[in-house]
Structure formats: structure tokens, C-alpha cells
Design goal:
Length: 449
């Protein structure tokens, strides 16, 4: 602690305005400059998410009415009085504005960092430094977003959030498929090298747990989100995804697939099945029919909840799970490159060596961040910011349960749009997984190792 305090006293200004290496003191382990920069940008996203969560807490939400021009009855903005009574869902409005500010922040950097090839590019200094000014920029965008007039902003930004969330769900599925393949390859390799049956037992156990959880979840979906009479949409959607999951599981163990993909198997299929069930659950939680959706919540402009049963929270369980998945996915994007060349090409990342910077740090004995991008960047700066932009839109929709105001701007309701976006993303993910299995057979001349 004393080491960090002394360093902060001597280099405070330079650390706030300088590069990522300055943000590591001598007490911290050496790390790549590129990794630290990604983690710090991810920290900004998490900070924005935390503020959004605070704003939808009921006690804080009520205080938002005091913001100038934020709702009818409060002070006007630039002398123009708002004509919409939004007192019942101020938190919803606040989350949308936080999402807009965060998305604008990452969009700005995505445009600024186009075609940066190495850390020798002057723009790389902006990517890896000036963190204090970046923080001020994010704060400024956030303050400005709260002065956006209501008008059609919420309705239009809802569709931006829908599109961005759909794309981010696909990114989650890509990362999940890559993680599942890497996991299976690691355990099979360990089993082959050590000749220990324990690895095979662990593989079978985890696969069984994933399938058991999926079957139990599907049974619960039929119990709580369908009725013997009615709820046809829910029955059809659950049944379709159940059939598709059975099909991908069968495909993963076909002899031809096993011959072309020796490491493919039921572990990957079980994990994809479990995630598909989660997406199905999340979609059904947005069905706008109270009889078919026990978690449905309608909020009107007085802040009351219109539902036959007492609801104790504005968040539902799918939103909480979605928040956890969001955190894991963004951290995964920030700290890891894939073991698979094809995924690295798709995600515009690559696994680079430590380079001279690491050797110099090791020789000097100083723990610091080192520049590992002098010869070339290890990830696309623009694509990374685009991923965080989509993540900001996804978490905005998750925190607001994908709800939107009705035409009178008096009631928040769950639209069918959210249901179909989530279901279609699950189908796209299953199709993508099947492609990873059959691609070596369809394109035998290409290297998919």
C-alpha cells in the first residue's frame, strides 16, 4: 500500500493523462498494455451499468423527478416545459439516457480508432492513455443525455437497443461456442496426456449436469409459461427450441462429424442447449399476456404495478441472469484471445507473443505494463469499442426488461418485438453452432483446425 501511495503522489498527473503502463504501480504484476486498456474501458462500461442500476432503485428513482425538465411538473429545459407525465418510470428514462451516453462514448472511439495498425500510430496513445479526460468525456456525455427532450427519443432509441442487443447476443453465442470447444479440447487433451479416467468422468458429469438442468428448466417453462387451454405461442416456441436442441446434440456425435471434428461432443452441445433454454426463458418473460407470463409487470404513470399478484421487484429473474452473463461476456472479450484462428479472425483478435517489452520488464525486475503492440495491434480497437457499444445497448434493454412506453407514454408494456428478437437470436446461435460442426465436411479444402 505504501508503495502505491508514494507512486501516486509523485506521478499523479502523468498517470491520469498518460498511458496504461503508468496505471500499474511497482506492487502490481506485469501485464500487457493492450489488456490493461481493454480492462479500463470495460471498467467504464461497468461503472455506467452500476449508475444505471442505482437509478432504477425505487428510492433513487423518485428523486429523479427533481432533475430539471426530466418530467412534467419539474423545471423546464431552456424555457420549454415538458408535456409528458413520466413520474411512474423515471428510472426507465434514466437508464435509456445512460445507455445513450455510454453508446455515444464508445461509438466516438470506434470511429476515432479506425485502421490503427500499431502502437506507433499517434491515435494509439489516445486508446491507451488520457484516462482522466476520457472519464470527463463520459461524464459530460451523461450529463448532456439527461437534457435530451422526451419527444420521440425513447421510442426511437428502443429500436436502436433492440438491434444492438440482438447483435450482442450473437457475440455472446460466438464466445460461448468458442469457450465450449476450448473447454472440451483442454479436458480431452489432459485425459490423453495423463491417461487418467478422472478427466473423462468429469466431462461426463458436467455434460449430465448441463442436460439435467436444461430438461428441468424446459419442464418449468411448460408449467409456468403455458396453460392447457391457450398460450399457443409459448408452447410452440418451447417445443421448437427443444427439438432443435435435440437435433444439434444428435449431430454433434454423428460418426462423420466425429471424424472431421474429433474434439466435438456432447459437452459443447449441452452448454449450447442450456444457453438456448435461458434465451427461451428470457423471451417468454416478455410475452405481453398476463395469463401466459407470470412475471409480466405493467407500470403506469403513477408508478403502480398492475398485476393480479403482488410483485416485490421491478427486475425479473431472466434480467438478473442476463446481467451476470453480460458481465462474464464483457470480461471475456477484454482479457482473452481465442485458441481458434477462425474465431480470432471473426472477433478481430490475435494471440501475440510477449515481445521485447516483457523481456525488458523481466530483466529490470520492475512490475509494470509493457507495450506489446509496437509491431502490430493484438486486437481491432474499433471492433472492441463496437462490442462495448453493443454491450451498453444490451444492458440498457436488460435493465429495463425490454419494456417500452405505450402510445400515450403513460404505461410501460412488454412488446412482442422483444420476444421475437430473443427467439430469433437463439435460432441464429444454434445455426452457427451447427455450422462449426459441419463446416469441415462442407468445405474440406479449408483448414478448420
Amino acid at each position: 500500500f505504501g508503495c502505491c501511495l508514494e507512486l501516486s503522489q509523485t506521478l499523479q498527473v502523468s498517470c491520469l493523462c498518460g498511458s496504461a503502463p503508468c496505471l500499474l504501480c511497482g506492487c502490481c504484476p506485469s501485464a500487457r498494455n493492450s489488456t490493461i486498456s481493454r480492462l479500463l474501458f470495460t471498467f467504464f462500461l461497468f461503472l455506467s451499468t452500476l449508475v444505471s442500476i442505482i437509478m432504477i432503485i425505487p428510492g433513487v428513482e423518485k428523486e429523479l423527478h427533481k432533475l430539471p425538465g426530466f418530467c412534467r411538473g419539474s423545471d423546464s429545459v431552456l424555457g420549454v416545459q415538458a408535456d409528458v407525465d413520466c413520474s411512474g418510470f423515471l428510472g426507465h428514462k434514466a437508464v435509456y439516457r445512460m445507455g445513450f451516453a455510454t453508446a455515444a462514448f464508445f461509438f466516438l472511439f470506434a470511429m476515432l480508432m479506425v485502421c490503427v495498425r500499431s502502437s506507433k500510430d499517434p491515435r494509439a496513445a489516445i486508446q491507451n492513455g488520457f484516462w482522466f479526460f476520457k472519464f470527463l468525456l463520459l461524464v459530460g456525455l451523461t450529463v448532456g443525455a439527461f437534457y435530451i427532450p422526451d419527444g420521440s427519443f425513447t421510442a426511437v432509441w428502443f429500436y436502436f437497443g433492440v438491434v444492438g442487443s440482438f447483435l450482442f447476443i450473437l457475440i455472446q453465442l460466438i464466445l460461448l461456442i468458442d469457450f465450449a470447444h476450448s473447454w472440451s479440447q483442454l479436458w480431452l487433451r489432459n485425459a490423453g496426456e495423463s491417461n487418467a479416467k478422472g478427466w473423462y468422468a468429469a466431462l461426463c458429469t458436467v455434460t449430465f449436469i448441463f442436460y439435467a438442468a436444461s430438461i428441468a428448466a424446459i419442464a418449468l417453462l411448460y408449467v409456468y409459461y403455458t396453460k392447457p387451454q391457450g398460450c399457443t405461442e409459448g408452447k410452440v416456441l418451447i417445443s421448437i427450441n427443444l427439438i432443435l436442441c435435440v437435433i444439434i446434440s444428435a449431430i454433434s456425435i454423428l460418426p462423420k462429424i466425429q471424424e472431421a471434428q474429433p474434439h466435438s461432443g456432447l459437452l459443447q452441445a449441452s452448454l449450447i442447449t442450456l444457453y438456448t433454454v435461458f434465451i427461451t426463458w428470457s423471451a417468454l418473460a416478455n410475452v405481453p399476456t398476463q395469463e401466459c407470463n407470470p412475471t409480466l409487470l405493467l407500470r403506469n404513470s403513477t408508478g403502480s404495478a398492475a398485476a393480479p399478484q403482488t410483485l416485490t421487484t421491478w427486475w425479473d429473474a431472466p434480467s438478473i441472469v442476463g446481467l451476470v452473463v453480460f458481465i462474464l461476456c464483457t470480461l471475456f472479450i477484454s482479457v482473452r484471445s481465442s485458441d481458434h484462428t477462425q474465431v480470432n479472425k471473426l472477433m478481430l483478435t490475435e494471440e501475440s507473443g510477449a515481445g521485447a517489452g516483457a523481456e525488458a520488464a523481466a530483466e529490470s525486475g520492475v512490475h509494470r505494463a509493457y507495450d506489446n503492440e509496437q509491431e502490430g495491434v493484438t486486437y481491432s480497437y474499433s471492433f472492441f469499442h463496437l462490442c462495448l457499444l453493443l454491450a451498453a445497448l444490451y444492458i440498457m434493454m436488460t435493465l429495463t426488461n425490454w419494456y417500452r412506453p405505450d402510445n400515450s407514454l403513460q404505461v410501460l408494456h412488454s412488446p412482442w418485438t422483444a420476444v421475437w428478437v430473443k427467439i430469433s437470436s437463439s435460432w441464429a446461435g444454434l445455426l452457427l453452432y451447427v455450422w462449426t460442426l459441419v463446416a469441415p465436411l462442407v468445405l474440406p479444402e479449408r483448414d478448420f483446425s
